[in-house]
Amino acid sequence: MQLFLESLFNGVAIGSVLLVAALGLAIVFGLMGVINLAHGELMMLGAYSTYITQLIFKQVSFLKPFYDSYVIVAIGIAFLVSGTVGILLERTVIRRLYGSPLETLLATWGVSLILQQFVRSVPLAYASGLVIALFFGLFSPLFISDDLLHGAKGKLIRASTWGFSALLGVATGGILSSLVSKLSRASARNVDVTAPSWMRGGIDFVGITFPKTRLLIILITLISVLIVIFFLDKTAWGIRIRAVTQNRPMSDCLGISTETVDIITFGIGSGLAGVAGVAVSLLGSVGPNVGGNYIVGCFMVVVLGGVGNLLGTILASFSIGIMTDLIGAGRLLTIWPEMPSPLYSTIDFFATTSMARVMIFALIVIFLQFRPTGMFPQKGRMVES
Amino acid sequence: MSIFSTKKSWINLTIWVLIIALIIAAPSVLPVFRLNLLGRYLSLAIVALGVDLIWGFTGMLSLGQGIFFALGGYCAAMFLQLNSAGEFPNGIPEFFGLYGVEKLPFFWEPFKSSIFTLISIWLLPAIIAGLLGYLVFRNRIKGVYFSILTQAALLVFFNFFNGQQKLINGTNGLKTDVTQLFGQMVGSEIMQRWFFWITAILVIFAWFFARWIVRDRFGNILIGIRDDEARVRFTGYNPVIFKTIIFSIAGGLAGVSGALYTVQSGIVSPQFMTVPFSIEMVIWVAVGGRGTLLGAILGAVLINYAKSLVSEALPASWMFIQGGLFILVVTALPEGVLGWIRTGGPKKLLFLIGINKKLETYPSLEVNEQGEVKS
User: Fold this and answer.
1) What is the ipTM of this complex?
2) In this predicted model, what pLDDT tens digit does every residue of B122-136 receive, in sequence order?
3) Helix crossing, B293-313 with B32-51: angle to 10°?
4) Interchain pair A93, B324: CB under 8 A
5) CA–CA dist B192, B143 (Å, integer)
6) Can you list the alpha helix ranges (DSSP code H) found in A65-192?
């Protein structure tokens, strides 16, 4: 029983990191047919946002009393940062490549390379200044009335919002780099996020210790999934997103602005990558390559779960998580020690984290022989689907 | 009609003579270091040809060609290690001693034979590619799904090779430059010169081979699969067979390329199976011009040369340039440089900057030998 619980918990913990990381990828893939290879780098941005938030809370005097709650603030900031960068990516690159998914794949890979090098060679203070400039530049037109924007002086107003945002960004960069000396120099080194005191240690339950960080990640995942489900099921934009996912040309004919739907979906998908980044930053050190460790797991979740169905994504991530734990930690051997020796040595051969990946990939390819479009395929009568 | 009767044939002949002269002369003109680099980049041109066959002609974007590339390299390296293992204890390569292995793992045995090695360099990757391809294509998995699966396969192979110290020296890889072949050090100058010539000849062979494949009806079906696979199926062809064959051919080419690269760079390691390297192969083809075989070769050689030049001068900026190339080539130059030239890009550019005023707004009608307009 104890063994079973421990194994289940580990599996769920691995699975929930996968789930929160793959959630955004799956939504975007379902809607636009686009696999975003820069998703891992958006996670990386989220992780760095956590790091920056933590440093700010540590250094700025009036925020110090609230240091313990920086993780919760970081989730919101990470969502906004990754979401902003994602929307910029959608508007500048992905928009031009609509209908050619393979080209999009390559272009997003290019973006991921640029983001990685950007974090290495630009001081984090100015990088966050740039993100703030982008944020206000992209979103401030939403709060200005249409008459002004499309009026005689519309161009001037747009230009001045960008100018104002740029000034704001430079100012933030300057203030941050003078306040927090660690952020003022570019560095390719990995950084560490230290968990606040209430998150250290674990909770003891029926003789097993559950680490609190793992529990928090499971909680973050749970809340993100619930919010996404609520958003997609109950809100007007959620319904529009589902409509476009099912049939894009038809939704367009019925007056849904597919362009806006694309922006919103991509923003949310990228934002969720940022939230995943917060979770990842709590598990290990943060570096420019941190996204790459998780991205292939996310791909497997999307392939296994099928397109356009959240249930598939959830089931796929938890089954991959539990399988990773079962195979990688060699739990089958402890459960059933007297298994026949050829089987024993085979399972023993695969009982490391990296070999577990090999095994799981083989299992997924076998699974796809029976269900080529994942667990919950989208029903349709198109030749292509 | 004699082949030398037209002007075009003369131009072709001159070009070939020039190329052959350059290949023969290169070792005496270039310093050893540059020659070695050029040889490596030429060997990468072979894997680029394979990528062009499956992506440019058949429309399947594989992000896992590194698997087959590395397999070819490992085949060559295992043979070379065994060939010069006589002086080590137990008659097995030195690194086994570090992990306390005393008996040669069974799959090393056949690589004692040079003929088996020469065959396995291309056949083994081809078989694995065919098998993997068949399992995937059979279920009509294509497009982005195919790309992700190949990438995942790549990572799986990487993990496998990286973790198995006792079988193939894991993350350290197998060294080839200090091994012996025909009584010479593989890393020596004479051997490297020979490897350069072999590579150059094989690039030309690979080019002729690829051209032979895409010229005939087989090539037409490949292009058909790229443009509309469902229609090919409805016409009565089975795309699975064609896709499996071409994927397996590309795998074989990757294997040859990997073996040549290994002997010239002096080591084969799981680093050949990292994700960025395999995606880079795609960008060589994309920049050179997908669907044009010459573009793949030129792209591989020139981009790698640019990479080494830029990395020597400004190490940090190559990632930015490479990322920019990816974005630029898919948004602005989807046909690649060679495709852009062939579709009249330079003329349009001249027109845009105001040098050349005359621009054909209609595509000129194609005329066949009898002077009739082709429909």
Assistant:
1) 0.81
2) 999 999 999 989 988
3) 140
4) no
5) 40
6) 70-92, 101-121, 124-139, 146-150, 154-179
